[in-house]
Fold:
Amino acid sequence: MRRPHLYVQVLAAIAIGIALGHFRPELAVELKPLGDGFIKLIKMLVAPIVFCTLVSGLAGMQDLKKVGRVGGKALLYFEVVSTFALAIGLVVAHLIKPGAGFHVDPATLDASKISEYTQRAHGGSWSEFLLGLIPATLIDPFAHGDILQVLLLSLLFGFALMRIGPAGQRLAHGIDLVGKAVFAVANLIMKLAPVGAFGAMAFTVGRYGLASLAPMAKLIASVYLTSALFISIVLGLIARAAGFSLFKLLRHLKDELLVVLATSSSESALPRLMQKLEGLGCSRPVVGLVVPTGYSFNLDGTNIYMTMAALFIAQATDTPLTLTQQLTLLAVAMLTSKGASGITGAGFVTLAATLAVVPSIPVAGMTLILGIDRFMSECRALTNFIGNAVATIVVSRWEGELDRDKLAAGLAAPAPHVAATPHAQASD
Structure:
């Protein structure tokens, strides 16, 4: 008997997890290790996947200028689209006013609950961030799973292989074979996605309870609505201009989207995203460069969340903001969303960092959303994931590294699949 598709299994696991979390919350909370374990299994593969994909791809390009051009186009795209995300969050928060009517006195709030986040937000300057890109040893990036450090090491290693001729090509071929093995492991681990989704969703509902959503339902709904508008309008128009259908791309990635939804982690689907983008005709070097860079610099969902959460706190505490202060908020959020990349709970940390630089908004107001942040993290992760998928296809097209026939055929397929790229193996 044939097993159901992965997305059916994950959907069933999510439904069972929600039911268990609601009716047996004590038991559901104990299942947290299932979700955490699945995410850890995937994260342990992220560094070697990025390294193998990018190094083997760069070694075959033989063009340093092309690498710089791809990186420049990607960063330009990230900044422009991220600005749109921040601006949309600001506009919708003004229209809906999710914090209006709370009239909270900041002096009555217990800021000790968020001290961990504020300390981490103040923990580094830009110089420290840039120095943090340089690993202490060649092994450190793989040991700690720091994507930006892995990216830097991959670029240096790929450039080095370009320069040493035939011997470098032979080594690149060996790295390519290692990449195939790592992707095969990723496909095996993805079979555990329903277990991880079940554990993560059961814990979330059991720990926080569906009833906890009621007091802040307006803010949660506003964040989801704004993200939906951003995806359907901004990303939809970008996709159309690039010659493909966003709806068909989402259908193609539905397995991965459900995993991201259940685990609240876009990294949980990173290996499969890279496989599927290669299967859709994006070149391996572009995928290897744009996807991991986007996971640190193209955080559309986090940007939307930060502006809306900051304005919610200002509205709830009756803190008036001038136009200059709001523009400052946008500028600071653009920087802090990059400065805290790679930090666990980055959405909440970047919010703390942003509020710290705009002192008119009381940082203590973050306690108002601490209990519901988990329910908005799914939205952040989904929006970030979709944004990076679109970005990779767009940059590939700009660079002339997109096989349009392969893209059209892949998006027209009746069921999502992991394409048979040089790295990938078939998966259900």
In short: The radius of gyration is 21 Å. Confidence is low (pLDDT under 50) at residues 339-344, 419-428.
